Amino acid sequence: MNRSEKQRLNFEPWRIRTIIIIGVAIFAFYVIRLFSLQIVQGAKYQDMATANRTATIREPATRGIIYDRNDYILARNIASYNVVITPAELPEDEGARQQIYRQVSEMISVPINKGNTDETTVKNYSSCSSDLGITQIVYIGETNYPYDPIQIKCNVDETTALKVREHSMDWPGVDIEISPIRDYPTGSLTSEIIGFLGPIPADMQAKYEALGFVTRRDKVGYAGIEDYFQDELSGKNGLRVVEQDVAGQIIRDVETPQDSVAGNNIRLTIDTRLQLAAKTALVNEINSWNRILGKTMSTNGVVIAMNPKTGEILAMVSYPTYENNRMARFIPSDYYTQLIKDPTRPLFNHAISAEHPPGSVFKEAAALGILNEGVVTPDYKVEDPGKITIMQTFYENDPGTPRDYVCWIYKDTNGGHGMVDFLTGVAQSCDVYFYKVGGGYGEEVPNGGLGIY
Q1: By the 8 A CB rule, do 301 and 192 touch?
Q2: Residues 6+ apart with CB under 8 A from 127
Q3: Which of 143-147, 185-189, 296-300 has the highest mean pLDDT?
Q4: What pTM was computed for the model?
C-alpha cells in the first residue's frame, strides 16, 4: 500500500465525531417525533383516523299529517320519484357508459352533455336545480362520492319512474330514488292556516343540526301550523354510524343503528267546509262592492268563525293568500319575489297579525259590557234620530267643539232607527244606540254609560 492510499484511509478524529453527532441528532429527532405522534398526540390522531373511516348517516323521519276537525287531510307526504345514477356501479367501458347516457337522456329529456365541470361549478352544484348534462353531473358525483347515488332529474312522473325501473338490468348504476315531499290537498283554501316548508335558514343551522337535522336536505316550517308545531310534526331523524373506505363505500355499521321516529299527526279545529264557505263569501263581497262602486275600495279582508262556548276556531280566512303547493319541493324565487312585492301582502296573515279598525265587531264587546254592568236592561229603549252631536273637549274649561256622530242608516235616509232597545240595537247594528249606552248621553243614559274600563 503506497503512501497516498494510507492518507485516504486515515480519517481525522473530528470528522468521525461530526458524523456520529449528526447521526445521533437525526436518530433523536425521529425518536422524539415518533414519541410525539404516538404518545403525546396519539389520542388526537386516533380520533382523526376514526373520523376519516367513519361517517354519520341521518335517516329522514316522516313528517306528521295535519287534519281538520272532520279528519279531512290538510297536509300530507307524497312520493317524489328522482332518477339517480351511482357512478361506481356504471360500466368501466366509456362506450357502454355513453350508450346508457343516451338512452336515459331520451327518456327523461336531460341532455348528455351541457355546461362544464370547473372548480366553481363543482363547488356550487346543487341537486335538482342545476342546468348541467348527465355526463357533467355523473362526473361531479364520481369526484366526490362515487358510491352515493346522485340525482339526475327530480320529481319525474310515476310512469317514467316505472320505465326506468324496467331498464335497471340493462342500465347498471341507474335507479329510481323515492323521497317524500309535502302536499297540501286544500292548497290556497287553507294556506294561511297551514303555511309551508322551506330549507333550514343559515342563522338557525347550528340549532337544527344539533337536533339531528341535515342542512340542504331537511325542511322546516316557515309559516302557519307547519312553523308553530315544527317540533311536534318533524319527528326525529334516524342515526347510522358506518365504516367506509376512501371511495365512500359503506363497509359495516360501527354502532347499533337508531331508527327514525315519525312526527306526530295534528288535528285542528278548522272545518274545511266552513272555511270554503267563508272564503267564498268574503271574496264575492269584496268583488261585489268593487264592481258596484266602479273602483277598488277593498283588496283584503278577514273572516274568523269561532265557537263561543269552547273558543275553537272553526274557520280563519285571510284574503288575499298564496298557493303553498307551489313551494312543496322548493321555493321558486320568482313566485316568492312576486308575493313579497305584492302591496296586498298575501304572505301576511291578516287574521292574526294585522291591525285594522274593529268596526261593528266591537259592538259585541259593548253589548256584553252594558248587560254585565247593568247600564241598561234589554228592554230599555233609547232614541236613534240618525245623528247626535257631542261637544268635543280636550282640557278643563275647554268650551268644546261640536262634532256629529251618525248612524249608518242616516247616510241613506237622513233619519235613524227610532226607539231602539238592546235586541234591536244588536240586530240592526245601530251605531247611535251603542254611542249612547257606551258613553252616556245626558239623562237618557245616566252615569256616563258603560265608560272606559
Answers
A1: no
A2: 150, 151, 154
A3: 185-189
A4: 0.71
Distance CA 245, CA 250 (A): 7
C-alpha span between 102 and 112 (Å, rounded): 6
CB atoms within 10 A of CB 298: 12
pLDDT in tens, 60-96: 999 999 999 999 999 999 999 999 999 999 998 999 9
Cell numbers representing residue 314 in the block? 272553526
Q: Which residues does residue 91 pair with via DSSP β-bridges, in sequence order?
A: none
62 secondary structure, DSSP code: P
C-alpha grid cell for residue 35?
414519541
DSSP assignment of 271-292, as one string?
A: -HHHHHHHHHHHHHHHHHHHHH
The neighbouring-strand residues paired with 174 are: 85
Q: Is the pLDDT of residue 167 over 70?
A: yes
Residue 121 in this model has a pLDDT that exceeds 80: no
Grid coordinates belonging to 231:
317540533
Q: Cα(297)–Cα(289) distance, rounded to whole angstroms?
A: 7
Q: Give residue-wise pLDDT tens across range 206-221.
A: 999 999 998 888 999 9
pLDDT, tens digit (0-9, with 9 covering 90-100), for 301-343:
899 999 989 999 999 999 999 999 998 888 888 899 999 999 9
Q: Cell 347550528, residue? A: 206
- The C-alpha angle with vertex 38 and arms to 33 and 44, in degrees rounded to 5, equals 110
Among the listed residues 420, 303, 410, 309, the one whose alpha carbon sits nearest the alpha carbon of residue 370:
420
Rounded CA separation 128/266 (Å)? 31
**Which of 147, 144, 114 has the alpha carbon at shortest distance from 130?**
114
- Yes or no: say if 290 and 297 are a contact pair by the CB < 8 Å rule: yes
Cβ of 269: how many Cβ atoms within 10 Å? 15
**C-alpha cell read off for 275:** 272555511
Return the percentage of the chain with pLDDT > 70, whole number.
Answer: 94
* pLDDT single digits (tens) 417-452: 999 999 999 999 999 999 999 888 888 887 778 887
For residue 366, the tally of other CB atoms under 10 A from its CB is 20
User: Of 81, 79, 84, 86, nearest to 152 (Cα)?
Assistant: 84
